[in-house]
C-alpha cells in the first residue's frame, strides 16, 4: 500500500479556503487537471455519500464518493469508486487547520492506495505532483483571481475608506406612515469589526410596524427603521477576516436601520449568501427563516410524529413553519383568516387549515386531534387568542409565544399551567443570533432548506425604498400574501 | 474548561525545530519569557514523567510535568503542577507537522485549562499570545523570518 502526504500553507483565511474545498464539485473550477465534473443524481455537493463524476484533461474518467465531511474540523474524506486509472482502494483525506499567526491556512492532503506492480512510482507521482501539488498552486491562483474580481467590482462602487452618502427611510416621530421620510444620510467608513454594505433589497417584517408606531421602543426618532436587508460588501474594517469587498451578504440584525441604500454594521451579524440565492430572496427570507429555524430547532426540537399548531399559516413565518415542520415529520394544523389563505396554507404543507376570523379555533383543533390537542402551539397572536390556545394544547404541551399581533400575552395563571403541565416559552430571535457562530449555523440551515426546496418563497410585492410607507399600509391592511421587499 | 489554540509557520525543517522543542529543559535557550530551568530529581529531560522547574523573567516559578513525547509525531504534552497564573487542570500540546511545499514547519501549540470566573479572556490572551505566540516569534526569528 502506498501512502502519499502533501501539505502547504495558503495565504488566505481558513473560512475562505474551506468554502471552496468543502464543495465536492468545485474542483473543475480551480484544479487544472479536471476538465468537467458533476454530482450524480442531483445531490448536494456537501451531502455525505454524494458521487462526483469527472474527467481529467488527459481523458481519464473517475467517480469519487464523499464519505465524510466536517465543517467543525475542516475535514473532507473521499474514495474512488471507479476509475480508468489503476488506483485501487484509494482513500484520501483533506484537512485544513488555521494558522492563527497571520490568519492563513495549513492544508494537509493524504491518501492511501494500491497500484499494479511496477507502476508504483508513476502513479504515486501522478497523485503527489499532478493532483496535490498542482492543486495547491491552482487554488492559490484561483484565490488571487477571486480577489482581483472582487477588488475590481468594489472599486467601481466606491473608493475605500471615506464616509459615503446614502439614502434612508427615516422615522421622524412614532405613529403613522406619514412620519417616514426619504432622506440623505451619512454612512461612516467601517470601524474595527464592522462592514459597509451596498444594499439592493430590504425585507419588511411586521416588527417594523411596531417600531414605527413606538410600541417597540427600539429607536429614538429621528432614525431609520428596518431589521433585514441583503446586498454587497463595499469595504470592511480592521479585524474582519471572513468578508471581502464584492461578497453577497444579508443580515437580520437587532438594531433597526435597514431601510437604507448603504449601511455600516457589525460584521459578525452579517451572513454570507450562497451563490444559488439572489439578494432579493435573501432579504425576503432571512428574518422569517431564522425565526422558523430557532422555533423548530432550538426553542422546541420538533420531532416526527408531533402535532403542531401554526397561526397565520399563510403568512410569512407561518408558511415557513408549515413547510419546515412538515419536512421534519410533524402533523401541521394551521389557522388562517380566509378560504383563499387556507388553500395557500395547504399548498405549503399545512395538513389541517382552520378558517377563523374571530380567534375561535380550539374546538376544531381538538376535533382534528381526537380531542387530545397539539404538542406545540407557535403563538404569534397573543392576548385575544389566549383562551383558545390554552384549550388547543395537549397535556405537557409547549406554548411558544413569539409574537402578539392582537396585544401582549398576560402571564398565565400558574394553576391553569399546572392543570396541563404546560411548558411556556417566550423567545426572542436576537437572543438566538447574538452568538455569531450560532447565527451562521442558523443561516446556513435556512439557505440549505431553500436549496433543497423545503422552504419555498415567491416575492410578489415589491416597492421602491422611498415607498416603504405604502408597503406598510398594504401590510397593515392585510392586502398582501407572502413577503414584501423594498428595492434600492 | 477553555481551549487556547495558536499556530504558526516556521521557516525550517520539522527536524530542526523539533530539536529545540523536544528538550523539556531547553526553554531558556529559545523562549524569551523564561529565565532559567532545571529538571527535578536529575531525570533526563526527555523521560516522560520528568518535571521541569523554571523561573519566568518576571520572577514567577512554574513546575510542569512531561506527559508524552513522540519523536515520530513531533509532539509532546505537558501539564502544569504549580504556577502563579491561577489555572487548573492545565494540559498543553505542542505539535509540529511538515509543510512539504517549501520544507517548512506547521507548528501548533494548544492548551486546555480551567480558570477562576471572569479570568477566561485574560488568561486565554496571556497564554495564547504571551506564552505561545511569543515562543513562535522567537523560533521564527531564530530560523529567519519569512
Note the main attributes of this structure.
heterodimer, A: 488 residues, alpha+beta, 13 helices, 23 strands, B: 146 residues, seven-stranded antiparallel β-sheet, 3 helices, 7 strands, globular
Q: How do the strands and helices of this protein lay out in sequence?
A:
The complex is a heterodimer of chains A (488) and B (146).
Chain A: E1 2-10, H1 14-21, H2 27-30, E2 34-39, E3 51-56, E4 61-70, E5 75-83, E6 88-99, E7 104-114, H3 120-157, E8 164-171, E9 180-187, E10 194-203, H4 206-213, E11 223-224, E12 228-236, E13 248-252, E14 262-266, E15 271-272, H5 279-299, E16 307-310, H6 316-327, E17 331-336, H7 339-347, E18 352-355, H8 362-368, E19 374-379, H9 386-392, E20 393-401, H10 414-420, E21 423-425, H11 429-433, H12 436-451, E22 461-464, H13 468-476, E23 484-487
Chain B: E1 2-10, H1 14-21, H2 27-30, E2 34-39, E3 51-56, E4 61-70, E5 75-82, E6 88-99, E7 104-114, H3 120-143
Antiparallel strand pairs in B: 1-7, 2-3, 3-4, 4-5, 5-6, 6-7
Characterization of this structure:
The complex is a heterodimer of chains A (488) and B (146). Chain A has 488 residues and is α+β, with helices and mostly antiparallel strands. Chain A has 13 helices and 23 strands. In chain A, the strands form four sheets. Chain A has a seven-stranded antiparallel sheet with strand order 1-7-6-5-4-3-2. In chain A, strands 10, 12, 13, 14, 15, 22 and 23 form a seven-stranded mixed sheet that branches. In chain A, strand 4 and strand 5 form a beta hairpin. About 2% of the residues of chain A have low confidence. Chain B has 146 residues and is of the alpha+beta class. Chain B contains three helices and seven strands. Chain B has a seven-stranded antiparallel sheet with strand order 1-7-6-5-4-3-2. Chains A and B meet through strand 1, strand 6 and strand 7 of A and strand 1, strand 6, strand 7 and helix 3 of B.
Amino acid at each position: 500500500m502506498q501512502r502519499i502526504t502533501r501539505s502547504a500553507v495558503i495565504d488566505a483565511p481558513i473560512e475562505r479556503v474551506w468554502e471552496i474545498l468543502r464543495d465536492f464539485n468545485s474542483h473543475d473550477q480551480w484544479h487544472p487537471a479536471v476538465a468537467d465534473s458533476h454530482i450524480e443524481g442531483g445531490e448536494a455537493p456537501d451531502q455525505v455519500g454524494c458521487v462526483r463524476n469527472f474527467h481529467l484533461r488527459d481523458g481519464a474518467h473517475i467517480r469519487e464518493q464523499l464519505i465524510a465531511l466536517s465543517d467543525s474540523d475542516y475535514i473532507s474524506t473521499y474514495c474512488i469508486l471507479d476509475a480508468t486509472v489503476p488506483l485501487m482502494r484509494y482513500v484520501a483525506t483533506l484537512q485544513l487547520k488555521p494558522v492563527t499567526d497571520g490568519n492563513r491556512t495549513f492544508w494537509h492532503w493524504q491518501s492511501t492506495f494500491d497500484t499494479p506492480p511496477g507502476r508504483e512510482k508513476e502513479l504515486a507521482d501522478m497523485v503527489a505532483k499532478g493532483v496535490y501539488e498542482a492543486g495547491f498552486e491552482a487554488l492559490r491562483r484561483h484565490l488571487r483571481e477571486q480577489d482581483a474580481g472582487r477588488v475590481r467590482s468594489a472599486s467601481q462602487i466606491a473608493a475605500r475608506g471615506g464616509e459615503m452618502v446614502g439614502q434612508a427611510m427615516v422615522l421622524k416621530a412614532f405613529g403613522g406612515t406619514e412620519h417616514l421620510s426619504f432622506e440623505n444620510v451619512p454612512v461612516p467608513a467601517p470601524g474595527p469589526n464592522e462592514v459597509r454594505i451596498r444594499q439592493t433589497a430590504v425585507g419588511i417584517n411586521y416588527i417594523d410596524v411596531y417600531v414605527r408606531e413606538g410600541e417597540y421602543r427600539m429607536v429614538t426618532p429621528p432614525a431609520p427603521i428596518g431589521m433585514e436587508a441583503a446586498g454587497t460588501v463595499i469595504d470592511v474594517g480592521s479585524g474582519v477576516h471572513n468578508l471581502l469587498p464584492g461578497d453577497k451578504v444579508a443580515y437580520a440584525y437587532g438594531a433597526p436601520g435597514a431601510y437604507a441604500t448603504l449601511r455600516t454594521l457589525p460584521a459578525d451579524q452579517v451572513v454570507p449568501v450562497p451563490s444559488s440565492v439572489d439578494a432579493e430572496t435573501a432579504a425576503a427570507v432571512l428574518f422569517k427563516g431564522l425565526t422558523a429555524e430557532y422555533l423548530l430547532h432550538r426553542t422546541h426540537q420538533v420531532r416526527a410524529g408531533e402535532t403542531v399548531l401554526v397561526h397565520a399559516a399563510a403568512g410569512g413565518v407561518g408558511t415557513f413553519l408549515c413547510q419546515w415542520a412538515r419536512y421534519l415529520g410533524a402533523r401541521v394544523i394551521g389557522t388562517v383568516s380566509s378560504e383563499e389563505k387556507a388553500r395557500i396554507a395547504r399548498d405549503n404543507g399545512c395538513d389541517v387549515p382552520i378558517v377563523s376570523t374571530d380567534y375561535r379555533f380550539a374546538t376544531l383543533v381538538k376535533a382534528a386531534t381526537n380531542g387530545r390537542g397539539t404538542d406545540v402551539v407557535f403563538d404569534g397572536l397573543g392576548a385575544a387568542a389566549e383562551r383558545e390556545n390554552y384549550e388547543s394544547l395537549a397535556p405537557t404541551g409547549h406554548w411558544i409565544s413569539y409574537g402578539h399581533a392582537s396585544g401582549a400575552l398576560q402571564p398565565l395563571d400558574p394553576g391553569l399551567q399546572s392543570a396541563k403541565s404546560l411548558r411556556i416559552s417566550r423567545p426572542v430571535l436576537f437572543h438566538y443570533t447574538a452568538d455569531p457562530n450560532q447565527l451562521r449555523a442558523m443561516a446556513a440551515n435556512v439557505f440549505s432548506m431553500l436549496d433543497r426546496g423545503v422552504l419555498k418563497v415567491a416575492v410578489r410585492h415589491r416597492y421602491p425604498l422611498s415607498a416603504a410607507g405604502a408597503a406598510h399600509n398594504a401590510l397593515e391592511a392585510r392586502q398582501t400574501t407572502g413577503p414584501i421587499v423594498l428595492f434600492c | 474548561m477553555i481551549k487556547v489554540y495558536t499556530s504558526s509557520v516556521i521557516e525550517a525543517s520539522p527536524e530542526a525545530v523539533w530539536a529545540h522543542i523536544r528538550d523539556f529543559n531547553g526553554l531558556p535557550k529559545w523562549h524569551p519569557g523564561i529565565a532559567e530551568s532545571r529538571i527535578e530529581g536529575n531525570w533526563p529531560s526527555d523521560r516522560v514523567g520528568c518535571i521541569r522547574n523554571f523561573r519566568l523573567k518576571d520572577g514567577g516559578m512554574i513546575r510542569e510535568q512531561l506527559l508524552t513525547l513522540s519523536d515520530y509525531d513531533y509532539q509532546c504534552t505537558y501539564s502544569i503542577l504549580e504556577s502563579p497564573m491561577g489555572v487548573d487542570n492545565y494540559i498543553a500540546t505542542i505539535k509540529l507537522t511538515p509543510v512539504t511545499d517549501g520544507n517548512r514547519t506547521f507548528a501548533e501549540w494548544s492548551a486546555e485549562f480551567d480558570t477562576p470566573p471572569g479570568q477566561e479572556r485574560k488568561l486565554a490572551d496571556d497564554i495564547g499570545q504571551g506564552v505561545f505566540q511569543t515562543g513562535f516569534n522567537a523560533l521564527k526569528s531564530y530560523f529567519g523570518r519569512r
